[in-house]
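Protocol check, entry for the methods section draft. Step 1: assemble the input record (protein sequence plus ligand SMILES). Step 2: submit for complex structure prediction. Step 3: store the structure tokens unaltered in the notebook. Ligand used here: copper (II) ion. Step 1 record:
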Amino acid sequence: MRMTAKMLIAAVVLIAAARTGAAAQGTVSGTLALEERPGAEHSDLRIAVVYLEPRERVIPVYDMPAMRSRVIAMRGREFLPHVTIVLAGGSVAFPNQDPFSHNVFSNVDLGPFDLGLYRRRATRSATFARPGVYPIYCNIHSMMVSFVVAVPSPWATQPDASGHYTLRGVPPGRYVVHAWHEHGAREVTRDIVVPESGLESLDLTVDARTYVEGPHLNKFGRPYALIRDDRY
Ligand SMILES: [Cu+2]
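Step 3, stored output:
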């Protein structure tokens, strides 16, 4: 007998439900800190991302739809929000809410894309197939910057202003914890084992000492032309 898609989904849900009942779901928490140059202006910790990459097959199917489809608005020559978490394989819609055209592109090796130029009220979407960080820009307005962090599991979050973060419903097992902040020289990763009781005080430090604010390149890999910012 061939398994239909509906049957397959039902089976996966049943397996997930059985696992939920069988295993305790722990909470993983701690504090993310940013190591910055002495005297540097403190960065916003709330735009950091902490997520778990399972080393075993423990991904549940519940609580995922919301993470598969996100929205980043273009409003007032800004991408809102500045940082967005999406489940790898999911998509992000970019509605243009300004009375002029915007472009959306990323040149990241992970999965470059260019949604072209489009007008007010139009929406185009991009899919983020591979886990990782995608810097997103507009080819017209160089100040428009956003980051999509595509994650391989639903255990992903952003810290509060003091850096504290909490990941709930984590099944026991082996994981790699990832901590990312746009000012960090690199993503921080650490192998961890989550016991049934969960894990507390998993403190992570991202090195931002070499961060220098500077311009990025346009979609052609060249500096942005000097144009009046209100031209469009
Ligand atoms: Cu723009």
